[in-house]
Design brief:
The structure is a single chain. The protein contains ten helices and eight strands. It is of the alpha/beta class. The chain has a six-stranded parallel beta sheet with strand order 3-2-1-6-7-8. The protein has a two-stranded antiparallel sheet with strand order 4-5. Helix 5 runs parallel beside helix 10 (228-240).
Length: 241
């Protein structure tokens, strides 16, 4: 029976936020304060839509954006971890659930030749318009009060597992690897045999700790990581069990 690895993308696979990395393409590598201050909590995708319009208005083309995104650094140890998973694909199904967008993730994974490691990527759909502007849409609609309006990662994970089960595929264990506040909702969906792996010092780890302190801990096991080598060490133990 296979294991399911669920990865966040920004600050998990890559060591930056891919949406803010693209600002390197802007004039003077920064956004005007009016645009920067237009972000409203829970409405990141709409904000990024305005950023992409600004970049397009300033003549930033697809090739320049692609070249810039290919320079984003992977998290420490992540190249080794993804190489290890690629060699053991018969044991692992691997998905990304991210609040980035399809274009950025596709560019970054293909530039590093890691796109074949992942079976599916669930993120906000993006595309270039006929006028050469990058556009992005919300991934889906949902009714979860805990999550930003464009993406509930719990809903994505549950629907993926349901779809797999319809095809007769179930998993011995789910390993969820992430860092952000929007990773807590899917972590709370995990069962006692599953593992949440929050990145040390980031929001997800802090929120899981707060739940434990308030006597309502998550049901799954929790293993903190600082380098992706920590994740690889755990997976090596897992496949020996």
């Amino acid at each position: 029976m296979k294991f399911l690895l669920v990865f966040d993308f920004d600050h998990t696979i890559v060591d930056e936020n891919s949406d803010t990395w693209i600002v390197k393409c802007a004039p003077e590598k920064k956004l005007p304060s009016g645009l920067r201050n237009s972000y409203q909590p829970g409405h990141w995708t709409e904000y990024m839509g305005r950023v992409f319009v600004y970049l397009g208005d300033n003549g930033v083309k697809e090739d320049e954006m692609r070249t810039t995104m290919a320079t984003i650094p992977f998290t420490a140890g992540m190249v080794d971890l993804l190489g290890f998973i690629a060699e053991k694909k018969e044991l692992f199904d691997c998905i990304i659930v991210s609040d980035s967008n399809t274009v950025f993730i596709d560019w970054i994974l293909k530039a590093a030749d890691f796109h074949k490691v992942f079976d599916e990527v669930f993120t906000n759909p993006a595309a270039f318009s006929s006028s050469g502007y990058l556009t992005v849409q919300n991934f889906h609609a949902h009714h979860c009060a805990k999550c930003p309006k464009n993406l509930c990662k719990r809903k994505v994970l549950k629907e993926f597992l349901d779809k797999q089960l319809e095809q007769g595929i179930s998993y011995a264990r789910i390993v969820y690897i992430g860092d952000g506040g929007n990773d807590l909702c899917p972590v709370m969906f995990l069962k006692k045999d599953d593992i949440a792996m929050p990145r040390e010092g980031y929001t997800l780890e802090k929120k899981i700790s707060q739940l434990a302190q308030s006597q309502s801990p998550v049901e799954c096991s929790v293993l903190v990581w600082s380098s992706a080598i920590d994740i690889m060490s755990y997976l090596k133990l897992l496949i020996k069990e």
